[in-house]
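G., the chain you wanted modeled:
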Amino acid sequence: MKRFPSIKKNSDFQKVYRTGNSHANRQLVMYVMRAESQDTRIGISASKKVGNSIVRHRLTRLVRESFRLHKNMLETGLDIVVVVRAAAKESDYKTIERAFLHLCGLHNILENRSEKND
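Predicted structure as tokens:
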């Protein structure tokens, strides 16, 4: 089974924060940076302001699932860091997915792959 392409090192997070472009909406903040690798990786951050560990992990799973389901629509070779905002605490999956896709659209990282049905 292939590993999930995630950003784990603090130095990688800091590099994306410093050099990446950011856009935000009510639920999420997204930083995007071109990476050296061909794979698109995602890092998710949820501070204690968002809620207790149960709430933070639930929101992290929702963002990760949104990324997994829409990864084939995204450009390759990107490092993406998503910061969960406290306003997302009560959000369901559809709200998080909509917020994630909205930010992807603002960053212009969605590819038009209508001819490909993976």
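Strands lie at 21-24, 28-34, 41-46, 78-84.

Shout if anything looks off.
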